[in-house]
Amino acid sequence: MASARLEIHYCPGCRWLPRATWMAQEFLTTFARDLHEVALLPAASGTFRIVLNGEELFCRKAAGRFPEPKEIKALIRDRINPDLSLGHSEPDAPS
Q1: Order of all β-strands in the sheet with 55-59
Q2: Which three-class secondary structure state does DSSP give residue 51?
Q3: Structure-model confidence comparison of residues 94 and 50, the more confident one
Q4: Average pLDDT over the chain, rounded to an integer
């Protein structure tokens, strides 16, 4: 049974809700059997963070950019279902 909780913290003032919902959809589609919950959490100005089961996977401020779905999918997969093939979403897969 799925038990992983993914949080996407986003800045509503920066109008990053569409980006957060798009990424949530990507993760829910890829990890339909592995994620128990995806939470969209309004946060402080300039925030865009992705947290899995309390572990920060990505922080826009620290990285100086937004995450690519492929890289986050790989990080999630490595933690909750290492045997899952991401197909064309593999970070090293040809585009």
Answers
A1: 35-42, 4-10, 48-52, 55-59
A2: strand
A3: 50
A4: 93
